[in-house]
């Protein structure tokens, strides 16, 4: 088992929880991870940093008699959320929080790496501490800069996401699509600014953007077959500066989700229709822009995922659950489109959902999660390719 004790795991998690950083700004996190890794047995390890992706860390573990390389990825970024957990180890970074549990992901990955630094694996291993999952697609950035080449290219890739909906320590997975694809959408409104007292001399973009939001939320509910699944969420609404000025500008940021790319394309087309309609009815400019980047659906490789599920059901049956697809996005979907692998859930048993300012994953998930993953990876290396 991992040479890190439960107390070590909890301390690492809490240290990381206090220093959450946004996509591509994970500098303190990077330094913390390097410091922890430097304390591991270095005999089999090669640590690699990426000048063009300076907060990323790759660690290669030399196998004793390798026939393949197994990759394990953990995302390291946080969200612009003001923490409201009231925990004694709450975020020290104002307005930033590990509201998606990536502190848990990093802790589990460190523990798994620590184990294999003490117990040389038969096959090579590659640990990827990845920046920028929540936005800016760190996995795609790394892949496109050629990181995963030669001895740094895994033959199969694994990664997890924490799930507040599953009991602490439970592993969840499914064949096929685990997570939705997502496309980011920004919408800019251009009208005419003016005095609050003379609305007839202005063109109020708070009203136009609000009408847009109202109409947008009829797309899924009124024009999509209810047995299919799609999501449109606008999480950011910026308009205006003071109560007595009519703003001539508004800016919205949202996200579109679908389990098939065709659903996302359908929603994009309908959003464009609504934008054109609002522009006409409010006599203003409405400019939507769309960006998918690396947020492809997370498609679990059939052979590797069957192997994963069969192993978990046979050896951790009381700790394993087949799950339904989720409308979360994950840029691990991009990496899995290039390198076969499996993403799975780790239950953290919390009443608060992912991205909540009160998310508080159960630390009881850490030890059983590490053990299940170490056991599976050792099993994976016993099998011939
Ligand atoms: C697991 C998770 O919460 N992932 C994020 C991925 C965000 C992708 C992109 N920035 C977007 O907003 O579509 C999620 O929000 O699902």
Question: What's the main sheet like?
Answer: 8 strands, mixed
Class computed from helices, strands and strand pairing: alpha/beta
Query: Class of the largest domain, according to the CATH hierarchy?
Result: Alpha Beta
- Compute the number of structural domains: 2
CATH architecture of the largest domain: 3-Layer(aba) Sandwich
CATH-assigned homologous superfamily of the largest domain: Zn peptidases
Helix-strand sequence: HHEEEHEHEEEEEHHEEEHEEHEHEH
Question: Which fold name fills CATH's third level, the topology of the largest domain?
Answer: Aminopeptidase
- Which outline best applies? elongated
Quote the beta fraction. Answer: 15-25%
Q: Determine the N-to-C terminus distance.
A: 24 Å
Q: Roughly what is the average pLDDT, rounded to an integer?
A: 97
Which cofactor or ligand species appear?
the ligand CC(=O)N[C@@H](CCC[C@H](N)C(=O)O)C(=O)O
Counting H and I runs of at least 4 residues, what is the number of helices?
Answer: 10
**Main sheet: which strands, in order across?**
1-2-4-3-5-16-6-15
What does this structure look like?
Pathway: Amino-acid biosynthesis; L-lysine biosynthesis via DAP pathway; LL-2,6-diaminopimelate from (S)-tetrahydrodipicolinate (acetylase route): step 3/3. It is a single chain. This protein is of the alpha/beta class and about 375 residues long. It has 2 domains: about 5-180 and about 295-380, Aminopeptidase, CATH 3.40.630; about 180-290, 2-Layer Sandwich (Alpha-Beta Plaits). It has helices at about 5-15, 25-40, 100-120, 140-145, 205-215, 220-225, 260-280, 300-315, 330-340, 365-380; strands at about 45-50, 55-60, 70-75, 125-130, 155-165, 170-175, 175-180, 180-190, 195, 230-240, 245, 250-260, 285-290, 300, 320, 340-345. The strands form 4 sheets. An 8-stranded mixed beta sheet has the order 1-2-4-3-5-16-6-15, with helices on both faces. The protein is elongated.
């Amino acid at each position: 088992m991992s040479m890190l004790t439960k107390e070590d795991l909890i301390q690492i998690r809490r240290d990381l929880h206090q220093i959450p950083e946004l996509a591509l700004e994970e500098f303190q996190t990077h330094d913390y991870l390097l410091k922890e890794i430097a304390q591991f047995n270095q005999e089999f390890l090669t640590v690699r940093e990426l000048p063009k992706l300076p907060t990323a860390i790759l660690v290669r573990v030399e196998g004793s008699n390798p026939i393949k390389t197994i990759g394990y990825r953990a995302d390291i970024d946080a969200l612009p959320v003001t923490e409201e957990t009231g925990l004694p180890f709450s975020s020290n970074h104002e307005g930033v929080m590990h509201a998606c549990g990536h502190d848990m992901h990093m802790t589990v990955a460190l523990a798994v790496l620590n184990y294999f630094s003490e117990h040389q694996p038969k096959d090579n291993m590659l640990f990827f501490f990845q920046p920028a999952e929540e936005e800016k697609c760190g996995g795609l950035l790394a892949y496109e800069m050629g990181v995963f080449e030669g001895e740094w290219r895994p033959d199969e890739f694994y990664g997890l996401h924490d799930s507040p909906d599953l009991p602490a320590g439970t592993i969840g997975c499914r064949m096929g699509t685990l997570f939705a694809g997502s496309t980011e959408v920004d919408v800019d409104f251009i009208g005419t600014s003016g005095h609050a007292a003379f609305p007839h001399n202005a063109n109020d973009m708070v009203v136009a953007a609000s009408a847009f939001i109202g109409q947008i939320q009829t797309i899924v509910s009124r024009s999509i077959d209810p047995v299919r699944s799609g999501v449109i969420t606008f999480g950011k609404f910026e308009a205006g500066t003071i109560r007595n000025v009519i703003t001539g500008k508004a800016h919205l940021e949202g996200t579109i989700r679908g389990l098939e790319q065709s659903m996302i394309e359908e929603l994009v087309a309908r959003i464009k229709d609504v934008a054109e309609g609002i522009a006409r009815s409010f006599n203003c400019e409405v400019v939507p822009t769309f960006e998918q980047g690396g947020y492809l659906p997370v498609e679990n490789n059939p052979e590797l995922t069957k192997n994963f599920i069969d192993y978990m059901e046979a050896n951790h049956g009381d700790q394993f659950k087949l799950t339904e697809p989720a409308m979360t996005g994950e840029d691990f979907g991009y990496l899995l489109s290039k390198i076969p692998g499996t993403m799975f859930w780790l239950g953290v048993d919390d009443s608060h959902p992912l991205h909540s300012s009160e998310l508080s994953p159960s630390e009881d998930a850490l030890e059983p999660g590490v053990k299940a993953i170490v056991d599976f990876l050792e099993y994976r290396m016993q099998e011939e390719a």
